[in-house]
Amino acid sequence: MNELIFKSSLTMEEIERNFSEMDFFSDLMDGLEEALAYSKGKASVETFVRKRSLPTINVVEIRESLRMTQKSFAAVLGVSCRTVEAWESGKSNPTPTAKKLMFLIQEDHTLIQKLQ
User: Fold this and answer.
1) N or C terminus of the chain with fewer C-beta within 10 Å?
2) 9 Cβ contact partners less than 8 Å away, ≥ 6 residues apart
3) Model pLDDT for residues 35-46, shown as the tens digit of each residue
């Protein structure tokens, strides 16, 4: 596995100073408590809820509009042919990331060439 390299114009001391006042565990717990309250219908006025809006896609239509086989479409998306088959038959649903990628491909067919 490659080592991650973090590049910043800030010095390490400046980065540490920026985060010195943060209590990540406390912030995480606050967020979880807000999520739990929201799920129980007891969210406070200050709670901000962001719902993801995923595009509606039809895998078969997208693949066929590209004149691709399930195998070649799967290769472009980085999934197995069985995964594409399952999506198309309704046995499973694409991940949010796969949905977004297929939506982008549907909107701009030239992206296929960049992904191959």
Assistant:
1) N
2) none
3) 888 788 877 656
